[in-house]
Amino acid sequence: MSAKACPEPAEHSGHQRFLSAVFYAGSSFLITVVNKTVLTGFRFPSYMCLGIGQMITTLVVLYAAKLSKTVQFQDFDRSIFLKIFPLPLLYVGNHITGLASTKKLSLPMFTVLRKFTILMTMILEVYILRKTFPKRLVYSVVTIVLGAMVAASSDLAFDVEGYTFILLNDAFTAASNVYTKKNLGTDGLGKYGVLFYNALIIIVPTLLASAFTGDLHKAAAFEDWVEATFIVCFLMSCFMGFVLMYSIVLCSYYNSALTTTVVGAVKNVAVAYIGIFVGGDYLFSWTNFLGLSICMSGGLAYSYLTFNTKSSTRISEAPELKIHITEDSTVTD
Hints:
By secondary structure, this protein is mostly helical.
C-alpha cells in the first residue's frame, strides 16, 4: 500500500513549533548531563531505580496539577489501557535502554549512535502515520545517518553491550515518538493524560522488575545517599525526567515525530562537541570529528527546511518521496 500524506495541523504557528523544539533540545541536553553525573560520576548502581524516581516525579507533579485544576485530563477507567497502548511498553523500554546506554558509553559515542533513531522514525511514520516526505528532508536525514556511520567507524572504545543497548534505545525511541504523535489526538487524553497514564501503568511492573533483579537492593545500599551533592543531582535527574517527557510530548504535538527526533539529534551532536573538551571520556580522532560535522550539517539543513517559513512553503510544493511498503511480497495501491 502507498504511504499517504499526513499534513501537520495548520493551527500551529511557526513560533510555537520552533519554541517547543528549543524547549525539547534544552531539556534533553540537561538530563543527559545530569544522568551522566549520577550514573558515571557518582557510580550510582541502578539506572532502573533512577527511572523509577523519574516516573514517581511525573505522577506527583501531574496529579498535583490536576487537583489544583492547572491541567485537565481524563479520570482513570478501563478504556485508558486501550487508548494508550502500546506507549507504556515502549516508554519503559526506551527509559531502561536509554539509561543503560548512558552508563555504558561515552557521551560522544552515545550521541553519535542515537542518530539511527532518525531513520527508524522516518520508516515508522511512513508505515504507521502514512506520511510522505519531501526529497530535501530525506536527503538531510540521510546526511545525518551517514555522518553517524562515519563517526562510529572510528570508535576506539567499542562496547558490545553498550552498542546493543543504544540500538535498542533507538528503536524504542522511534516507536515511542510515532505512537505519542498518534495518541495525542485520542479523546480525553491529551498531552498530560499521555504522560500521566504512561507513568502510572508502568511504574508497578518496573518496581517489581527492579526488586527481582536486585537493582532495588543495590540502590538502597548505595553509600552516597548521605552526600548532599548526590541527593541534589538525583532529585534533579528525577525532575528533569518529567520535564524531558513533557518536552517530547509538547514537541511532538506541535511538530512531526520525525522533527522531534531530528531536534534531539542536533542537540546530541552539540553535546558530542562539548564532550571533546570536557568530561574526559572522549577519544579524539579526525574521522569521528568529521562524522560529527556531517551529522551537524544534515541536522541544521533539516531544521532550516522545517522551521524557516519561506522554506516550509516551498517544501509543501516540492515533489514528495513516495515510499511503498510491501506485504506478503505484493505491492498494492
